[in-house]
Amino acid sequence: MRIVVQEAVFDPGEWLNRLHGDNRGTGAVTGFVGYVRDYNDGKDVAGMWLEHYPGMTEKALQTIAEQAAARWALLDVQLIHRVGQLEPGEPIVFVGAASAHRQDAFAATEFIMDYLKTRAPFWKRETTPQGERWVEARDSDEQALSRWSES
């Protein structure tokens, strides 16, 4: 399991390939990459600033990944999230999972992203032609999270 929070741009393909590595028991690898858009909520976006609490953020991401690993039969989880100044077109986040079977890898990746969007301590500020604005949480993210409640 690898969790990284950094300012530098990363190559999602490298992260995806690390999930398989030399583990011949891996039958499925899934990956999700989130990118900075140049348009959001009807406004042009020139850039984004992501803030976090060092130490606390990594611990929260580790806990989310461990919850996924406890819930599904995973062989590996890779999660990288950027902070600082980001430009449109750049990757923000990569979440990937490796497992023997695709269902576990798909479910774990979705679970991690849903929890990351709603529970990880990140704050986004977009720069638009109208000025800067903080990006508020979306109701749809909370709704997506609700599907993972224990039943």
Task: Give the SSE map.
Elements: E1 2-6, H1 12-20, E2 28-35, E3 39-40, E4 43-44, E5 47-52, H2 56-71, E6 74-82, E7 84-86, E8 91-99, H3 102-119, E9 122-128, E10 131-134, H4 139-146
Parallel strand pairs: 1-6
Antiparallel strand pairs: 2-8, 3-4, 5-7, 5-9, 6-8, 9-10
Helix pairs in contact: 2-3, 3-4
Question: Summary?
Answer:
The protein has 4 helices and 10 strands.
- Average pLDDT rating: 93
Shape: globular
> How large is the share of residues in beta strands?
35-45%
Relative helix content: 25-40%
Going by CATH, the homologous superfamily would be Molybdopterin biosynthesis MoaE subunit
**Poorly predicted spans:** none
- CATH class division: Alpha Beta
Radius of gyration: 16 Å
Separate helix tally: 4
Structural class comes to: alpha+beta
> How many separate structural domains?
1
Distance between the termini: 27 Å
- What is the CATH topology? Aldehyde Oxidoreductase, domain 3
Placed side by side, the strands forming the largest sheet appear as 1-6-8-2
Family: Belongs to the MoaE family.
EC number: 2.8.1.12
Subunit structure: Heterotetramer of 2 MoaD subunits and 2 MoaE subunits. Also stable as homodimer. The enzyme changes between these two forms during catalysis.
Catalytic activity: 2 [molybdopterin-synthase sulfur-carrier protein]-C-terminal-Gly-aminoethanethioate + cyclic pyranopterin phosphate + H2O = molybdopterin + 2 [molybdopterin-synthase sulfur-carrier protein]-C-terminal Gly-Gly + 2 H(+)
